[in-house]
Write a structure and sequence with these properties.
Blueprint: E1 3-5, E2 11-13, E3 17-18, H1 26-38, E4 42-44, H2 52-62, E5 70-75, H3 82-96, E6 103-106, H4 119-136, E7 143-146, H5 150-157, E8 166-170, H6 178-186, E9 190-194, H7 206-215, H8 219-229, E10 233-234, H9 241-246, H10 257-264
Parallel strand pairs: 3-4, 4-5, 5-6, 6-7, 7-8, 8-9, 9-10
Antiparallel strand pairs: 1-2
Length: 281
């Protein structure tokens, strides 16, 4: 699989397998194993998903050499200090059964409990410092953030020694966060796209179906091709082996300019882009 080059020189597969909502146990284990067997080499999980142990077991049982894989997990909102971040990382590594991580992300920019007096800024600076030290110790190959808008990134960069390599945000046809996209591109921060299919609405949209029919592909494959042509890194998720494999059949699609715009401007996706400053997390 092709790779993007992160701002620290590390290569990252251009498409990853998402495990959000994959239940711990057989569901997460079998889905991750099916993805690895199908050809995925980039697996994305998080502490809050509560499935790191099952994902780690699938990684081990796949038999794929560790150096061929790119594994991501994330730091959740209940971690506020440098010491807690170090401990949370160690706990995730134990659950995953790994001795190093490819990418570690701050999962959310502003936990609800820290919004008064902008306490989230201090928290982010603290946990980021811990992540920088883990990176410098060789325990993580790259560090980044998730769901950060420009003002969250600006605050982080005031004290950061390293610019985040990645910002994982909601991006899909019809969900294009222009300000965040522009900011990240200006700062050489790769955009990962969670929810690349929306929340199911794309599959009932006649305009999207028309584009898919034109290229002889599925809606999911066309949505992933759109994301890749925009320079994003999509993270499709599924627990169905046939769909997991089918989603990889997106690399031979070359959408023309008109179709890229049609997909970019699709309307009616549920929820739109989330507002991290208003979420009850």
């Amino acid at each position: 699989m092709k790779e993007y080059l992160l701002n620290n020189g590390v290569g990252i597969p251009v498409l990853g397998f998402g495990t959000w909502k994959a239940k711990d146990g057989e569901e997460a284990y079998q889905a991750t194993l099916a993805a690895l067997k199908a050809g995925y080499r980039h697996i994305d999980t998080a502490a809050i998903y509560k499935n790191e142990e099952s994902v780690g077991r699938a990684i081990k049982d796949s038999g794929i050499p560790r150096e061929e894989l790119f594994i991501t997990t994330k730091l959740w909102n209940d971690i506020h200090t440098y010491e807690e971040a170090q401990e949370a990382f160690a706990a995730s590594m134990k659950r995953l059964g790994l001795d190093y991580l490819d990418l570690y992300l701050i999962h959310w920019p502003n936990p609800k409990s820290l919004r008064e007096n902008d306490a989230w800024k201090k928290r982010n600076a603290e946990v980021w410092r811990a992540m920088e030290d883990l990176y410098n110790a060789g325990k993580i190959r790259a560090i980044g953030v998730s769901n950060f808008l420009p003002h969250h990134l600006e605050a982080l960069l005031e004290t950061a020694r390293m610019t985040p390599a990645v910002n994982q945000i909601r991006l899909a046809p019809g969900v294009y966060q222009a300000e965040a996209v522009d900011f990240c591109r200006e700062h050489d921060i790769l955009l990962e796209a969670w929810g690349p299919f929306g929340q199911g609405e794309l599959f009932q949209n006649p305009d999207v179906q028309a584009v898919a029919d034109k290229y002889g592909k599925t809606i999911a494959q066309v949505a992933l091709a759109w994301s890749l042509q925009e320079g994003f890194l999509p993270l499709p998720k599924s627990v169905t082996p046939s769909r997991i494999a089918s989603n990889l059949e997106c690399f031979d699609i070359e959408l023309d300019t008109a179709d890229l715009e049609v997909l970019k401007n699709i309307s009616g996706l549920a929820g739109g882009a989330p507002n991290p400053d208003a979420m009850d997390f």
